[in-house]
Each structure stands twice: as structure tokens, then as C-alpha cells.
Amino acid sequence: MELSNRIQLLIGTALVFLLIATREYHFATWHNLPGASWAVFFLAGFYLKPKWVLPALLLVAWLIDFSAFNWGSGSDYCLTPAYLFLLPAYSILWFSGFWFSKQYRFSFKSLPTLIMTILVSAFICELLSSGSFYLFSGRCHRLSGVASLLLGLGRVRLVAKWRRPVGPR
Questions:
Q1: Which of 20, 78, 111, 138 is 20–30 Å from 168 (CA)?
Q2: Is the distance from CB of 135 to CB of 143 less than 8 angstroms?
Q3: Considering the entire predicted model, what is its pTM?
Q4: CA angle 118, 137, 130 (to 5 degrees)
Q5: How far apart are CA 50 and CA 8, in angstroms?
Q6: Is 65 helix (H, G, I), strand (E, B) or coil?
Q7: pLDDT tens-digit profile of 58-84?
Q8: CA 146, CA 83: separation in Å to the nearest integer?
């Protein structure tokens, strides 16, 4: 699917504004909008073809976090060595969107491929982002192998019995 540069610029601008408006603990407090980071990276990979878009979006996400930690009301609780795992986590979503854009046909036959692409990329993103926090942040204790696996399967709350955070929630 080929989009004109003008359309890609409009979509890219909308995605950046969506990322800014919904980055959980920054500007979204007035209505508690859910974070759209995962969707933004997947859609950017699907719609925006220049390769510089991925590093630019990663930079925007980091700048939002950096400004919240330094000048806003954001906590540094998540700013640990595990934060670096957001780079491959978000990149997986972008590359999945990019890959799906090559498979996409305007037909219901594309739907199973879309669903599998989203499920697999979301699973890997969750495993990298949440799993790395629990394993490498130093904020949690006694994480068993089973708990690590369950965390990667979607933040299963049962795991909280095996591992308690050290700091504030």
C-alpha cells in the first residue's frame, strides 16, 4: 500500500500527538486516557515507510518520559536498566506493522494474518517490556521461573504472590 508523502506526514503527526497525549503519566491525567504507545508503533510501521520514523518515535517517547521524570509529576520508579528493553519491545511492534503492510490486501483474507501479527508482536513486546522490568529493575524480589513465564503471558496478577515490588506501586 503506497501513500503519498503528504498523507504519511499527516498520519505521522497524528500518531505523535496520540503518543504525547496518552503516555500514561504525563498529559493523560485529566481523563485517564489509556496509553497508545503500542498501537502508535505498530501503526507507524504499517503506514509510514521512511526508516528514520522508528528512531524518531523512540526519541519522542524517551523525551516524554524524560520530561515527566525531570519536570513533571512522573515517578522514576520505572527508570531502571530495564527501561532499555523498551527499544527492542517498541521496535518489534514497528517492524511487525512494517511487515504486515507488505502482506496486506484490502480483503477479509488479510484479517487472520493481522490478528496473528498483532498477537505475536504484542506477546513479544509484553515479554520484553514487563519481563525485563521484573527481572532487571532490581525493584522486585524472588521471581521464580514460572512467574517469569506468566508475566510474559500478560501480567498475570496471580504472580504477585510470588514476587512483591520493593518500592511504591
A1: 20
A2: yes
A3: 0.70
A4: 15
A5: 9
A6: helix
A7: 998 888 878 777 776 665 556 677 778
A8: 23
